[in-house]
Amino acid sequence: TTVVRRRNMDGLKLKIMTVVTQRPHQPFERYLTTPRDTHLDSVHRYNYGLMSILKDFYNFTFVNRRTKSWGYLRNGTFDGMIGALSRREVDLGGSPMFFRQERHRVVSYTTRTFIERPCFIFRHPPRKDAVKNPFLLPFQIIVWYLMVVWGLILVVVLSLSFYFQDSGVCQQGNGDGIFFTRSCTSFFILLFGYLMFQYYSASIVGSLLMEQPKSIKTLRSLIDSRLTLGIEDIPYSRDYFVRTTDADSLELYRTRIEYYDAHTGRNESHFLPAVDGLRLVRDGGYAFHVAISAAYRIIRQTFGERDICELSEIDMFPVSSQWMVAIVQKNSPYRDVITYGLRRLNEAGLMQRQRHVWQEPKPKCVRQIAPDDLIVGLDAVVSAFVLLAGGLALSISMLIGEILYRRVAQRSMFRHTCKRTDEVYL
């Protein structure tokens, strides 16, 4: 085919522009090709690596250029990489980008190379209302009712055994008769209590070790939560709020991201670099919208095991995982060449290898029982203290009532005795 015949381009120089949102502290080409700090510009360095393989595959060379923006409409024209391609200042795009209808008019797409998924990442706060009374949690209501009913039945049976045994002693004298009724009843009462206690205590300990229920599962619940929100300062995040018509997303932007704070008297902006935003997530009480290609490596390096297990993710974009595609000039003669080459890389597994280099997998939750997991807070045992206080108050009230009753009874008896004495003397 024509593409195969173009395998050797005899060192043809092609101008390529790559998006770099961070400031590299080393020569530009070395920064793009060295797998160090892979959470920085990982998507762009990944795609540039694919283009570098195609450079050797087709025997052409690069003239590198850089920009800070993919390309967005500004006063009717595109800036950044798309603007350079539309003005034919460069031949190839070194960074992949999302599909957009307005971009299709000025550039040509080749094939999909990368899946990006930006989302909110946060440590889910514990629900204080998750367990209203942990001491009633282990058993269902029907079990508690059955325990009360059978407890009363056993008490009645035990009382009857005492009654009939005492009656037998009174009628037959002090014989050495052996009565198994009370012993049998006591044995089954103890066995029943032991089994119920084992289930009860094991359930309470298990509730301390199991994962806490999560209530923040949607963007709406995230907006209504007390978490502070932030977004990675990256061009497509700002562009999303300009383009979207989603009511929840617009409310989030106007009330939680960029807004006027009446208390401080200044405009607040919560666009942050990925490292700073995830540091706040690690400290707790903060939700940060960031691309997982950058987030997962930072999380693996800086988060503890407990922090990782508490992480939750919520998507804000309508399509959570979006394909990114490599681009060239509109109607470029190199479109088929680049498309064929990228598909060959995918078939050969080289594209997957590049993903392993530049994209960190999601950190796994390896939860181990730690001493902190068994710490019981006051909110979990407050009902027990309330029960104890109620019992003390009831016992003191009964004591006071008994004292008053005894005094009244003594006075009544004293008056009755005095009255009988007076009658005798009279």
Automatic annotation (TrEMBL):
Domain of life: Eukaryota
Record localization: Cell membrane
Ionotropic glutamate receptor L-glutamate and glycine-binding domain mapped to chain residues: 20-118
Any Pfam family: Lig_chan-Glu_bd
GO molecular function, one term: ligand-gated monoatomic ion channel activity
Lipid bilayer topology: Multi-pass membrane protein
Keyword Transport listed: yes
Chief location of this protein within or outside the cell: membrane
Keyword annotations: Cell membrane, Glycoprotein, Ion channel, Ion transport, Ligand-gated ion channel, Membrane, Receptor, Transmembrane, Transmembrane helix, Transport
InterPro entries, per the entry: Glu/Gly-bd, Insect_Ionotropic_Sensory_Rcpt
Cellular compartments per GO CC: plasma membrane
Bilayer-crossing regions: 142-164, 185-210, 380-405
PANTHER family in UniProt: IONOTROPIC GLUTAMATE RECEPTOR L-GLUTAMATE AND GLYCINE-BINDING DOMAIN-CONTAINING PROTEIN (PTHR42643:SF42), IONOTROPIC RECEPTOR 20A-RELATED (PTHR42643)
The protein, known as: Ionotropic glutamate receptor L-glutamate and glycine-binding domain-containing protein
Taxonomic placement: Eukaryota, Metazoa, Ecdysozoa, Arthropoda, Hexapoda
